[in-house]
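Hello forum,

I keep getting stuck at the same step: I have a sequence, I want structure tokens, and every attempt I make locally crashes halfway through. Rather than fight my setup again tonight, could one of you with a working pipeline run this one for me? It's a single chain of 657 residues.
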Amino acid sequence: MTQDLLFEPVVIGGCRSRNRIAALPVFTGYARPDGGVTPLLREHYWRLASSGAGLVVVANVAVAADGRTSPRTLRIDHDRFIPELAGLAATIQRRGALACIQLNHAGRFARTERPLLPAPFDAAHLDHDVAALKAFMHTFPFAERFGLTARFMQMHSKWHRGMTPEDCQRVVGDFTQAARRAVAAGFDMLELHGATGYLLAQFLSAFTNRPPGPWSGDFDTRAAFVYDVVRAVKAAVPPGFPIGYRLLVREWVPDGIDLDEATALAGALEKMGLAYFSASAGTYNSMFNPATLRVTRRPAYLRADTRTLRGRVGTPLILGGRIFRPSIAREVLAEDGIDMIGLGRPLLTDPGWVEKARTGKRVYVCVDCRHCLKRVIREKGLACARWPAIEIERVDLECALHVRLNACFFFTSLQSLEIGSDAWPVKLSGRETLKIRLVYIAPPEPAIEAFRTAADWHWRRFRQDWQTAGQRDDLLERVSTLTSRAYDDLLAEARQDGFGMIVLADGPHVPSGEVLASKWREGIFISQTCLGRANKIFSAVDLSPSTHVLLRFLAHAFLGRPGCCFRFVHVLDGSAQAARKRWEKMLPLSGWDADTPLELMPPGPEGVAGTLQREAAGWDVIVVGRRGMSRIKSLLLGSVSRRILRAVSDATVVIVS
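Reply #2:
Ran it on my machine without issues. Output:
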């Protein structure tokens, strides 16, 4: 019986893969806002390795803070990321797969105030850019186009300055240090991301690297930065450590990278000793164009170009590009001299693809709806339209919590420091790595000196509790400011830095509480008005999507803590049967036992807010969800959370969006 080529072991860069199937790098958006590994991300790569793939590539790991494609991009720009990345590599390896990490700098597509790019943007290809933007926008619902257009225009407005020699030297160093950390984390190999229109591809392409930029010109001039990065990375890793390259074979833009330039680059990099090339095509400037889509929707659309590449280099090649059926994979391996088949979206659509290929069962095929790509562009977590609805809800929930559990405390008076001295959220931080910022807003004279003295004492105690809990010092920070500084600025900084929870420790009916709550509509707002009591938790649930986040927050903060008791109440606005069915569906997804009780009650004559206020009397913590209504609708219909915040004076109020 002949050996099935798909399941024949293969050696790549001196590492033996159990078969010829690679799980290609697909960006997830599952990382923490600080760039760390989350349980959801670890589970994702565990699933890929468990699928049976021989090589798993961890996607799009930023070598610098200004090289992130998204606020939820994995990072490797500091040694503090090594332990978590080591755990991720071990997770993959324990399932029998080789662990590879893809290093990237997003260049002009980075989410940063000052993006790096080889040359300033010019209007030479304005017609193409406008057509590409139009095609991109038409793939999204009409209601979302305005926000996406504004985001694109804001990004575009920053493309006015090319990189300096110092910038280039620094980024080469970033790749070098990232490679060192990848080795320290225990990955079997690394891959440099030279595709999708990110920084390495931006240097090589005459579409983005244009005169009079100092790095523009002929092919060798444009490729020089890529060569510098490769040489530096090779020098940073042990001899023989495998380095692959994600190779852009066609850019599909005017003056862009074509097959001739791609093969020339591959030939030069082969002489530098790279371990493999993984073929890719298209960038954000072309992948949504109708002409591009007609090509990329064909089965194995990169096959002919990779066959040409095979004729010019002997380095192992990985072929992706809609290899959606095992029969296509076997044909390519048998006829084209390709070393490995790359599966990206096919493994998302059907995690059982590899086993079904082994047993001859029918696979579920990716229909190229681009739901997964559009989700990450919207900065939602990766999900496939063919997944069960409950699994997509789970991804949404987990990604929402990544941000919302980073807490920013505001202290505005001596009373607030006394109330905040209990600092119960410190206790929840031991469950999972969080980031906490303490903002001390000094009152006017004559109270300012007394406040500063008390704030210093409070900071020392808080930091001691934090260290006793075993938390990292770099995840706790202090900000001291004056009352003259606007809350808008402080909240904007909190958003920018990845905080999703605002905690105001102050006395009852403080005007700043309602002000902050009204301005902080995308996360969790906590008004802590009493000292020490946090055992009796009353939760008003409306069974909207915010209830998912509410339940997960409560599980994270309180579930399993000695002495805690919970009461969940839903004021009916429909049938009781539908409410119970929805509740039963939410519980396992949110980490609660299936028999967790929910009290259903009709609204009293005082309305929903009055009913909940009455029922919550005597409880230590009152938790309510915020539906996310517009400000106008909230004014017209009334805000339950605002009314409760105004009325309650002897309990901590938590508002979850």
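Residues 448-468 form the longest helix (21 residues). If your local run keeps crashing, start a new thread with the error log.
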